[in-house]
Amino acid sequence: MAKSKIYFASARNTKWLYSDSMPGKFERMIEDYKFEKYxxxxxxxxxxxxxxxxxxxxPIRATFVRKTVDRVRAAGGDPFIAETVRIPGLxxxxxxNYNGISQETCGAPLVLADGLYGTDNILVKSGPIIGEVAxxxxxxxxxxxxxxxxxxxxxxxxxxGALKHLSMGGVSARHRAKKxxxxxxxxxxxxxxxxxxxxxxxxxxxCLEVCxxxxxxxxxxxxTIDERLCWACGRCARVCETGALSDPIDPEDxxxxxxxxxKGVLSTFGKDKIIYVNxxxxxxxxxxxxxxxxxxxxxxxxxxxxxDPVAIDQASLDLLNAADPLPNSLATDLGLKxxxxxxxxxxxxxxxxxxxxxxxxxxxxxxxxxxxxDK
Length: 375
Fold this sequence. Notes:
Largest sheet: 8 strands, mixed
Helix content: 25-40%
CATH class of the largest domain: Alpha Beta
CATH architecture of the largest domain: 3-Layer(aba) Sandwich
Strand content: 15-25%
Number of domains: 2
């Protein structure tokens, strides 16, 4: 079986030349990569990326977004920068601007792919567990896409890369009528939500503050979740330091559902219509959607590009797992040592579980050839 070709540009800059800088290497990489194979003249192209949050200030830098936009345009495409609603739409557009992501800095308009309210979506068949997913209508309809993923850790998926970005980034939070088809359905299909132990609660309000949907109410020493708003992300339980909150999310089941979501999104594109870019810089332990960002768990590694989402994530995971934990990071707080599997040891379950599931679903192959553009 032929291996998928993944091109790699190292973050090391030893020559003090622009061409040896990370922006310079990325520019060379995408100039050489045949965008024209994937993009037809005057075709609308979504440059899909995460815009970060008010506290998680390390989304992909505008420098790399702008170079991607320019390359899409040079290939004949008409690009726009797409994202799905994670907080109220108007606020999210403002957050993107605060984080340096705008039409002025990136060279293309910003578009909320599932509308201002996150309910503009189309049901698509996915897999045996979820059945259907609510794919953002713009992602569903656009003919071509470049998936710009910030490779990092994640609470339940263990890592965030191309596949998670396809799934969580291409699917809306909820469907207007059918429950369990949005991001909440991928996190947890059970009707149960977070359980609360009043005896352990110190009413610090951290859970209330971290909820992206403002679904939690704490009044008169009573904890309440609005089921209409909750999408079962589990952040409230994640930040609870006393163990008062626990969630029913099974990490391996979540990874299965996550890959089914990616399958649903991929089904809306034709062959050779998506390019994947994994940016392995500022690799924080949690997602860019969290209300804060811890220091990186490993040194900057570089940027990868390819057209197989499984292969690019496998290559990225292998590179990060082989990296040494950075001092004064969550990795060293947990006592992780060089030579282990960094993300597998940092989060549970092993992220390899999700990649193996993606292979089983036919989303790509793990075998890859890593081609260093400087060698």
